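Q: Start with the shorter request: fold the first protein.
A: Done. Sequence, then structure:
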Amino acid sequence: MTEQFCAPLTAYIRKSVDLTDGQIELIEKQSRIVVFPKGSLMAEEGIHSKHIYFILSGQARSYFLDDGGKTITWFFHFNDSFSSAKNLFITDYKSFLTHTPGTLTIEALSEVKAIQWNYSTIENLVNQMPAFATWLRTLNESFFTIIYDRILTLMTMSAQQRYEKLLQDEPHLLQMFSNHYLASYLSLAPQSLSRIKANVSHAHLSVAV
């Protein structure tokens, strides 16, 4: 059972490093399968995030409250052909690494099935498997780039630029999530997103004509 569920995770790791059958078996033994019902919280602001999850099925989102109390969706989490590291892995990363209260809340938007690791699990795998340590370093570098890009997007781009970046980089999100969640991802009111969508669509039609 575990081996079946771990196959997507080990396949993902093997995109970056080679794994022997014995190493795959070690990862499987250290992994736990968990299921979260729709609407449940996988992590919560103010609480130490003790686990990291590799999503197998379902959809979730991580979010925080800005200084004005507005909800900002940080990332969407899912596992399909469009997924990258930011979608596949779920945790409040700073809280997980520093053992401090988290700043993110993570909500299951549907039933979510995931592989769960805790901090000691990752330490054990790093100590026993140089290949896993190499992969983890690559993953950390990827996360740094992703988070840097996300912060710059929110801080430096106008509302329309943020929407146009979504169209360029993540157009699949438009079919996967509601206008309400997408507006939160772009740090907009839903009405503002609808207006920007109409303006961009009209501009594209004008160019086409």
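Q: Next, the second protein, separately.
A: Sequence, then structure:
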Amino acid sequence: MLRAIIFDFDGVIADSEPLHFASFRDVLAEEGIALSEAQYYARYLGFDDVGALASIGAAQPEPWSSARVTALAARKAARFEALQRDVAVLFPGAAEIIRRTAAEVPIAIASGALRAEIERVLDSAGLASCFTAIVGADDRPLSKPAPDPYLHAMARLSAAVGESIPASSCVAVEDSVWGLESARAAGLHTVAVAQTYAKTELPVADLVIPSIAALDLDVLRALVSGQAAQSPADPNC
């Protein structure tokens, strides 16, 4: 039985990856480092802010200290907030899907975004109360592809409903290989939304759908029960 759904945030609910890229690009440019859009999506999208900057800093002639990485992450977060202000970033159909799924099963978020960034978007859309649990980058030490974000979300969901929810009865909705690997390592079924990457770049998903608006609860129930094909092949993606 489908017991819960855990969503990634950026690239699944919110079309905010372009803003994240612009924020990193602007802050790094001030440091004399050029970051292209292709580099961001190929190398750093799966990281949280600190992880991405630590990776970039490690490749510099003089590797960055943890204090410098932390300071740059704070500047990136401030830049992101400025760019995000008064911008509608939800993908088409996302709000309707969130409300519909929340009426049927508990839902949560496991994201590499900061909690404040997530809550700012959800509050502005009137969706915050739909989520039983939210896990952001500042809620746990390890980011995707480690399973920690999903393990934390599962623990918070279980605490909220007052009983242990097995990962095998839950579905993760993701947009990247890093996120899918994280969810799979935590024991969840996986659905990839081909909004950031093409379906051919998401081979580790149990199922691929073309957009968040195409999420179907009956299909998720079949996936959990073992009645759905464990394949990313979807001719409509």
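Q: Describe the second briefly.
A: The first helix runs from residue 17 to 30. Residues 229-237 have pLDDT under 50 and may be disordered.
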